[in-house]
Structures are given as structure tokens and as C-alpha cells.
Fold each of these.
Amino acid sequence: MATKKPENLSFEEALDELSHIVAQMEQGELSLEQSLKQFERGIALANASSGKLQQAEQKVAILMGNDSQAPLSNFDSNLD
């Protein structure tokens, strides 16, 4: 299976893969070359995730009218 580019993954997919990479590296069974490759992939995933999070924060700010003083409220998923 081909590995997707980090920017083509959803936020959740990127976090899942990043968690998997961290677990692999913590086990200490990867060679130096494999560790460096996984580290590089992890940095790319973290950067892509950070960018997606910033985009989401910008959308929320726009939806709230860019009012930094607007009160936050709990999300109610049980709207009738």
C-alpha cells in the first residue's frame, strides 16, 4: 500500500499514524536509518496536523465574527 502524503490525510488519520510512529520508536527496535525515516515522516505529519488545526481555528474565528471576547459555549450534539 502506498503511503499518503501527510497533507492528504485527515487530521485524525495523521494523529493515528503519528501515534503509531512514536510507539515504534519507543520500542527501540528500528535501525538508525528506519528511525530517521520515521522521524522525518513524523515531523511531516505533525506539521500537516498543525496546519489543519490552524485552519480550523481560523474558521471558528470567522464564524464567531472574529470577536475574541465572544463567550464560548458547550457544544450540544443532541439538538432536536
Note: The mean pLDDT is 85.
Amino acid sequence: MLTGKQKRFLRSKAHHLNPIFQVGKGGVNENMIKQVGEALEARELLKVSVLQNCEEDRDTAQQLSKGTKADVVQIIGNIIVLYKESKENKQIDLP
């Protein structure tokens, strides 16, 4: 679990990022979880955009974080910010 200070730090880092994944009508599936997990390993911090036509938009952040074992840093509107410490490609030092 992240502390409030760590989340604040990660939010400031994520502010300039663009979403690299979009969750659409199909919702979250195994393939998407696998791809988001690989992207988290490479980048550690990323944004996911939830499109208007996504039916299960309330559960999307929870499904992604559970599937990838990542922390949800924040949810603003339809943007989810995820963080997971990389095993081999560590770039972010948390306070």
C-alpha cells in the first residue's frame, strides 16, 4: 500500500503523462491485463482512459489493479493512474 505522501509524489509525476490504454465497451479482459502489466514493468507509472461506452466503469480500476497487482494512485473522471514497482527497470524512487 502507498502512503499519502507517496501518492502525492506519484500524482505529480503522472500529471504530464498521456493515457496509453483505453478501456472500451468490452471492459477489462485477460489480454488487456497482460498488456497493462507489461507496460507497468517497463514504465512503473501509467494512465488508463475509460471510454464513455464502457459498461463496468466503476469496477475497471479495481479489476486492473487486482489483475496486475498494481496500486491505484488516483482516479479523476475517466482517467485511472496506476503504479507498480518494476522488478528489473526501476526508475522511480518513492519518498
Note: Strands lie at 21-23, 45-50, 71-76, 79-83.
Amino acid sequence: MVLELSQQQMNLLNANLAESIEELHDEVLHTDEREMRQELKAKLQQLQALKRQVAAQLQGHQPAL
């Protein structure tokens, strides 16, 4: 499935991903249970990969200076 997002929506998505990544990173650091920490790390890696994709899309839509 492909979503068409406006520049404003992409910026909002990028900001939300950054915030979610930061919060999830804190959860990973403060989780004592090893198995849960591994699951959280996997989710964190997925969010980081998605954020990289969104950032690449944003760079592609930026007008040249």
C-alpha cells in the first residue's frame, strides 16, 4: 500500500517518529526484563528505519537552494 502525504503531513510524521523513537529509547534503557528489552529494541530499530525513509522522502521534496 502506498500513501500520498503532503509536505506538511510528512513533516508531522517525521516529528512524531522522532518523538516516539526518543520515548522508546528511554523505555529500552529503563526496562529490566531482558526479553522485553529485546522486543523494545526491535521496535526501536523498525521506527528508526521508518524515520530514515521519511527523512529521505523529505530531502527529495525539498526545493534546491
Note: The mean pLDDT is 90.
